[in-house]
Amino acid sequence: MSDTEWPAKGARLVVAVDGPAGAGKGAVCRSAAQRFGLTYLETGALYRAVGLIGLRDGLTDETELGRVAGTMPFGFRALGDGRYGAFLGEEEVTLALRAEEVGQAASKVAAMPGVRAALLSFQRRYGGAHDAILDGRDVGSVVWPDADLKIFLTASLEERARRRAVELQERGEAVNLTELIARMAERDARDAGRAHAPMAAAPGAILVDTSTLTLEESCQAVWRLIAPLLEGHART
Ligand code: DC
Q1: Which of 155, 150, 133 minimizes the C-alpha distance to 213?
Q2: 21 lines ligand 1 (CB under 6 A)
Q3: What is the pLDDT of residue 1?
Q4: Using an 8 Å Cβ cutoff, are 187 and 48 in contact?
């Protein structure tokens, strides 16, 4: 799908939330989606799905991974309990996508222009079909430069690693905080340093630093930015 075939944004509302791993993007976006009736797309899940397939099939070649990105049977489906799961065909991969090694693999495939190009139209179509909130690394800078609101959600490396450690511990996984900080720093450097669509605050993005905020406070900070957009907005 070429650029010009992308659906126009038109009257639809698009909120773009970018930032590094562990800043709270997922939880904050889910809460905002629920509160304001927006559709949420976690764009990192697409890169994670390509990373997962790459790990499973032992793929490292950009052309092959680009083909995977363009053809994988990835989608979100309602699980019937109000939650949505990530699926590759009939296989639910929600938990598999969260694994640390899959995050690292995702960050590596995300540096490949062929992979990014293949995933772009999915993200653009998704936002184009609903009032939506999307999170990732380049949503405000590349995917939806015409978003109604751009937020760069961040936190200190130490705080992000601490949050990730709690999440892993809750899942019963062993945690070494020093190692986690090193791996997160490595992923930040790769995501921000790559040549194509690096992680960056888009022009006009509002910076929200959650280092000293609780999750509730982080959600409220973002809700306060979104609420004025919805006043008088005809819902789609
Ligand atoms: O948000 P996340 O941790 O699930 O993302 C996993 C990796 O995918 C991240 O390290 C970089 C990549 N990514 C990206 O390059 N662009 C996006 N819009 C979202 C994720």
Answers
A1: 155
A2: yes
A3: 37
A4: no
- DSSP of 89-122: TTEE-HHHHHSHHHHHHHHHHTT-HHHHHHHHHH
pTM attached to this predicted model: 0.92
Of 142, 144, 137, 134, nearest in space to 193 by CA: 137
Residue bearing the CA closest to ligand 1, atom 1:
44
Q: How far is the CA of 44 from the centre of ligand 1 (A)?
A: 4
Query: For the chain, which residues score pLDDT lower than 50?
Result: 1-4
One-letter amino acid at 122 equals F
pLDDT for 236: 61
CA pair distance 118, 105, nearest whole angstrom: 17
Q: Is 86 in the pocket of ligand 1 (CB under 6 A)?
A: no
CATH of 13-228, one of 3.10.20.30, 1.10.10.10, 3.40.50.720, 3.40.50.300: 3.40.50.300
| 95 within 8 A of 45, measured Cβ to Cβ | no
Domain ranges of the chain: 13-228
Residue whose CA lies nearest to ligand 1 atom number 6: 44
Does residue 131 line the site of ligand 1, with CB under 6 A? no
Q: Ligand 1 centre from 23 Cα, in Å?
A: 12
Residue 4's pLDDT is 42
CB contact at 8 A, 152 and 192 = no
Write out pLDDT tens, residues 33-46: 999 999 999 999 99
Length of the chain as a residue count: 236
